Predict the 3D structure of the following.
Amino acid sequence: MRNPKLKSNLIRWSWTISAWLFLLLRAYGQPLVTSVDAIGLTVSDVDRSAEFFSRVLSFEKVSEFEIAGAEFEHLEGVFGARARIVRMRLGDEFIELTEYLTPKGKPVPIDSRSNDQWFQHIAIITSDMNKAYQWLRQNKVTHASTNPQRLPDWNVNAGGIQAFYFKDPDGHALEVLQFPAGKGAAKWHEAAARNKDRLFLGIDHTAIVVNDTASSLKFYRDWLGFKVAGESENYGTEQEHLNNVFGARLRITSLRAERGPGIEFLEYLAPRDGRLTPQDLKANDLAHWQTKLIVRDLKFAERGAISAHYTLVSSGIASLLESEQQYKKSLIVRDPDGHAMQLIEK
């Protein structure tokens, strides 16, 4: 086509039509995302991190490999990238620890707070909060909460839940969580009854700070197809000491795909002084997390992301060898608050 402007307009219209067609089809069909595959963290020393998650939190190593090359560079948006990746399992859920051998990125900001928008954690279910806390103290973890908190009974949706925030060796936030009878997925109560000697059972969800729940729902519910599974508004001294944020008042929204851990929004109604995710955050920086989502049609997803003006980390769809990672094609996109989602088509 000789007219570049007309060609550009036709491509843009095609993407827009595809995106609206996708939303129409999904309204009567199936969601784009089928499952949450794994939650990924960038770490400074993958051997140290794997040992921590294994010895302290009972994760088991599933695989380890090293990856480099143009496709990986274009996927992660990091030129000259070479990385070691360790995949680990707890119960039915997975994490991936990625150490960039080159180039090295920035550490997690030492003054990070739970209401900063780059905040993310994984919630690990425990069968006994008291024993879990004593074990974590014995292993000298860094506190993020002052101590375990039991959410008050007046909070109908969250009352009785016990939780504690702490940090891994690189400063990533982690949470141990225990549900009372009648709350949480039945699988956690069944697992606790079946495995009385197991202290840590699996991953319930990954939590992310969002600036505006409505905007995040457009990304996760309306585009990706997650379903809202629960909502609550949490405040009071227990929430303040859990998050270690004075005056914390949160709107919490839980979402689920067909399979895998959930994604939980933490919108701070107060205080509103959390810092924005740095625009120059890269995949090799230790504040970077990326949640791996299995999708039905990656090309459709790419068109939808471009049409909605979501930020693409990847320069395009990357094809990685199945012998290195268990998927064929992948693309990384950031949500409205800068959290990275790695979309994978197997």
